[in-house]
Design brief:
heterodimer; A: 140 residues; mainly alpha; 7 helices; 78% helix; elongated; B: 11 helices; 2 strands; 73% helix; globular
Chain lengths: 140, 284
């Protein structure tokens, strides 16, 4: 269905969320999940080739995702095409897309003069970031 | 067991879960956490992490289509996230704290009870009724929690107005906690809030709930990731399998008898719930 879909063009337009806003969010979500699929598949195959005899108990005993220790160490593994590091990029992409769609909404609400809803979205984005960088490490 | 065998098995099981889940009108994620714990021996916390990633992937895939068709109410969905996200942070934080403790059996019992609680919502056939067009509560009015969608079946534009936003926020907070704690979408609870409290049309409730599930899952994933509970080689096959299964299910849906599959899924749900509760009670 495109913008010319008569069914959709029959809908009244919300000035805060015009049809282009829906298209933008839809495209963002589609790109994110496609990117995740490609990266997760490549990462999975790569990891299986790199560690053909790894057992499940070894996998769960030491989580490679947290063994990187720092962003630098992680990037190094990524440049060496470490399977787990590639999968993680896919996961980060999907997280980024989700945060991105809330940011889009925040901007749309702000531009539409709906400051209360823009504030709600801003709070949600802040909470998402706090979860990753504060709550998680704090309770670990 | 070798990881390659685990990956193949996870892909197969997750595809089946996604397929049946989508046909039953419930995300496959709801059965993944217990399956990973009970049948694959994955530790509880890591199972929750993998399931949460699959919930995010499935919701993003379906969300793209719903948003494109303008069935998702971006205004209401974004507003209610203010309740689900803190709930998910609390739930996921509890999972990180309790994952390696002697409380895991209690979490399993609670998960089993949550599974059982979704059965009535899965069995009940929801019917489309005309949404109220009377003004909602003051918050709904002030934030203009209302919208329109095009009903392709009846070929008309349907207008709706959100009713009780405070009730919806309360239910959404609870849905967020459950989602974060067990790595599930909590779609049944979210739809309940949108359907019963805000009294939105069924299609809009489903699409908006799906939209919110992704953001709720992301909140939980952030905490679970920082808490070392996301193992990429477990999360990836589960997420890919569930999403492919859900996609296949949605394509086949028009050609299958939905009712039979719904009952098959309910039986699986009940068996898993009872098994989860029993294992939890036995402390396994």
């Amino acid at each position: 269905m495109s913008e010319q879909d008569p069914a959709l063009s029959a809908l009244p337009v919300d000035p805060t969320f015009p049809p282009s806003a829906y298209e933008r969010v839809s495209t963002l979500l589609r790109s994110g999940v496609s990117g995740f699929f490609i990266l997760a598949t490549i990462g999975m195959i790569t990891a299986l080739i790199q560690h053909p005899s790894e057992t499940v108990s070894q996998l769960t005993a030491s989580n490679p995702a947290t063994d990187y220790g720092s962003v630098g160490a992680y990037l190094q593994q990524l440049f060496q095409l470490h399977g787990d590091a590639v999968i993680l990029i896919g996961i980060f992409l999907m997280i980024g897309v989700t945060v991105g769609r809330v940011v889009y909404a925040m901007i749309d609400f702000y531009r539409g003069g709906e400051k209360a809803l823009a504030l709600v979205c801003g709070t949600v984005v802040t909470l998402l970031v706090v979860g990753l960088f504060v709550v998680g490490p704090f309770v670990r | 067991m070798l990881v390659i065998i685990l990956v193949i098995a996870l892909l197969a099981v997750a595809t089946g879960a996604g397929f049946l889940g989508s046909l039953a009108g419930l995300g496959g994620g709801v059965i993944l956490t217990p399956v990973l714990v009970l049948f694959f021996g994955i530790p509880f916390g890591e199972a929750v992490g993998a399931s949460a990633i699959s919930v995010l992937a499935t919701s993003t895939t379906a969300g793209a289509a719903y948003v494109h068709d303008r069935l998702t109410d971006l205004r209401i969905g974004n507003f209610l996230q203010i309740a689900t996200v803190p709930g998910a942070l609390i739930g996921a934080a509890a999972t990180v704290v309790l994952a390696d403790t002697s409380y895991v059996p209690y979490l399993l019992i609670a998960l089993g009870l949550v599974l059982l609680s979704t059965v009535p919502g899965t069995v009940a056939m929801r019917h489309e009724t005309a949404p109220p067009t009377t003004p909602g509560d003051p918050v709904s009015q002030r934030l203009r929690l209302e919208g329109n969608y095009y009903d392709r079946l009846h070929k008309k534009v349907v207008h709706y107005k959100g009713q009780s936003s405070n009730q919806a926020l309360g239910v959404m907070f609870g849905a967020g906690i459950v989602a974060g704690l067990f790595g599930i979408g909590s779609g049944v609870l979210k739809v309940l809030a949108l359907d019963r409290a805000l009294r939105l049309p069924m299609k809009v409730s489903t699409a908006t709930s799906n939209f919110m599930i992704g953001v709720t899952a992301t909140a939980g994933i952030g905490v679970l990731f920082a808490g070392n509970l996301i193992i990429p080689m477990i999360a990836a096959p589960v997420a890919i399998g569930t999403t492919l299964g859900a996609y296949g299910g949605s394509r086949l849906l028009p050609y299958l008898t939905n009712r039979l599959i719904r009952w098959v899924f309910v039986v699986i749900l009940v068996v898993l719930a009872v098994e989860t509760i029993v294992r939890g009670a036995l402390g396994v």
